[in-house]
Amino acid sequence: MLALYLRDLKLGVRAGGGALTGVIFFLAVIATIPFGVGPDLNLLARIGPAILWIGALLASLLGLDRLFQAEREDGSLDLLVLNGDRHMLAFTVFIKCLAHWTVSVLPLVVASPLLGLFMNMTPAGIGATALTLLVGTPAITFIGAAGAAVAVALPRGGLLISVLVLPITIPALIFGVSASYGAVNDPDPFLQPFLILAALTLFLAVIGPLAAALALRHSGD
Amino acid sequence: MQTFGEGKTMRLVAENLSGERGGEPVFEDIDFSVEEGESLVVTGPNGSGKSTLLRVIAGFLPAAGGSVRIAEGGEAFPSIASACHYLGHQNAMKTALTVGENLAFWRRFSGGGRFEIAAALDAVGLGGIGHLPFGYLSTGQRRRAAIAKLLVSHRPVWLLDEPTAGLDKSSEDRFADLMKAHCTGGGIVVAATHLPLGLARAKTLDMGARN
Predict the structure, then answer these.
(1) Does the keyword Hydrolase apply (chain A) (predicted)?
(2) What is the pLDDT of residues A203-218, one digit of tens each?
(3) Which CATH number fits domain B9-210: 3.30.390.10, 3.40.50.300, 1.10.10.10, 3.40.50.10240?
């Protein structure tokens, strides 16, 4: 299983892996917002956590379509399914999700403090947003894997995956943003939404790979 | 020669096996039994269902009727999926990784390591190119690297779909020797191929004659 994780990391960072497209998209979205909203620093600081979360959510959906499609195109997917007796397919999917998250989504979390400066956010707000992104974005990847598995046989399934997955990621967005606001606005709680966010990630870490494995088993042709 | 009555030899058994693609029946009521050391050569014109048969055996496609199973596989190989290698039309190798990295991954992932990477590459005549990215190889070399994948981890049953596509004559001969050695070592080969395997215990299944 470690072998699979390392292989996917290598594939992600080597040429054609497309690991950086997400970060560049994230940067483009966040850098555009101040131009659109105008130079109202207070307003920017207020909407900052939400904008960062929306940007990260959309950016992390970008590379998902290749998660299983690349495996399917070169025939590797058959062998991953075939080894289902040795390595439970859902666990294989889980590892692939972790590798995908490490390569494509973790850079977004790392970049988010810098982009938080663009939004004139306070240090506490930046820290809270980065922390909620760190905890909440795996949920997006795990449930995104289920979408990617459903659309694996479709030649241009990228948009379909986003549309399928987006509604299910909304709870993570809501609790991620409300926890971030809780850290800066005094009466609002931070811990409760943060814990629900963590629970969402754990919940989807089980449901997502199981659903994806089921979809992959039945996608054979 | 061992007989079926002993019940000790591993067998790949299909009974009344039927397959379909997109609701269209491709083949019906296929029966065969291949035991350790034997091979089954599946022949037939294009579209006669050779690939579908192999994919049904591997479990990628549900059987429309009948069953296929491993008998007497023991604890190590309770099901077909755990007992077989599948070499399809695609090579299942990543172009961005080197040949060695590809093989090392499948060796660790599939387990049951037998040949070392270098030894497996030597066996298919690709010695010394393990450091090259898989994407740099020619079609025939890619196929040979994919064949090396069969060697790096041990599975008793090889399901091969047109394994010699893109291979030159000497590579075909070398591959035939590998298949022979696999059968001699107690393996089972099920191949959709036109290559004469030169095996004493090769059965044939002509899909074209059935339809």
Answers:
(1) no
(2) 999 999 999 999 998 8
(3) 3.40.50.300
